[in-house]
């Protein structure tokens, strides 16, 4: 089921011919790009082709010009660069002012950012300042016959997919969930144009100062970020209790993977909401996804169906998870998971 929303009828339509181009914001920390930025260049290339416009990136930071060449490698033809010490650490004010400056000057038609903590923090002020619309947490993007960006995201706790359209303002701004798209193939032969810009902004103009940066990418308990994990072991309602959850953690530890959960496991209080995989949770795309006691409701499979290999463990042979699984194990998850863990340990001990 889909829902189409738009601006109110009767509002003035902004001159679309003034806005051209698909832009991707390259998120970075200390010069290290977030993978979601390159994922966005994949869908951005498709949108740019349908609109017959350039695919560009915005790179903002301190000593980050190397990200321009990386942008070209992943498909961008032009990069708008603002490089200055004031942008070394991310802060909302200088970054949203820089993004607004570039958009005001060059007028892109579509602007895409990752639906990360940084992306969500940045897009609100940018959209407000530009008096335009913003769709958060998209899983699909497309272009219709009127050059409108079709922005699809889960709604009503993931029970429907809503397609949102911004008909009356530009640019059209969306954030996209990490791992919702594939990273495009690298082509090191690609080159492009770098447009260097500068702004009249200094530390004295900014009310917030960065005193210390703490890397929280592995979480408080040392857990691996599920959006970056190559191997994920997911706990469903079949785990039954928080005591049994330890076996999921043990298997993940043996495999060097991350622990995730289904919505049912969160509702039962078995796992924290941060590890929830699904339409309304997190979208993941690991090499191996092991679903333990997960029924496989559509809301869950939408968040993990693009995994390279899906291994499902469930006692119910009619469980929907088997429809998307590469390999299925019909059995009691409380017996199967410890058996797999023991086998992995034995294999590692032989090496």
Task: Please give a quick description of this structure.
With 351 residues, the protein is of the alpha/beta class. It is 27% helix and 25% strand. The protein has two domains: 2-201, HUPs (Rossmann fold), CATH 3.40.50; 231-345, TPP-binding domain (Rossmann fold), CATH 3.40.50.1220.
SS-derived structural category: alpha/beta
Number of domains: 2
Uncertain regions: pLDDT < 50 for 5+ in a row?
1-13, 218-222
- CATH architecture classification of the largest domain: 3-Layer(aba) Sandwich
Major sheet strand order: 8-12-7-2-5-6-13
- What is the subunit arrangement here? single chain
Q: In percent terms, what proportion of residues is strand? A: 15-25%
Q: What is the fold named in CATH at topology level of the largest domain?
A: Rossmann fold
The biggest sheet amounts to: 7 strands, parallel
Strand and helix order: EEEEHEHEHEHEEEEEEEHEHEHEHEH
Q: Number of DSSP helices?
A: 9
Q: Roughly how many Å apart are the termini?
A: 51 Å
The count of β-strands is 18
**What is the CATH top level name of the largest domain?**
Alpha Beta
Dominant shape: elongated
The mean pLDDT is: 88
Helix content: 25-40%
Provide the CATH superfamily of the largest domain: HUPs
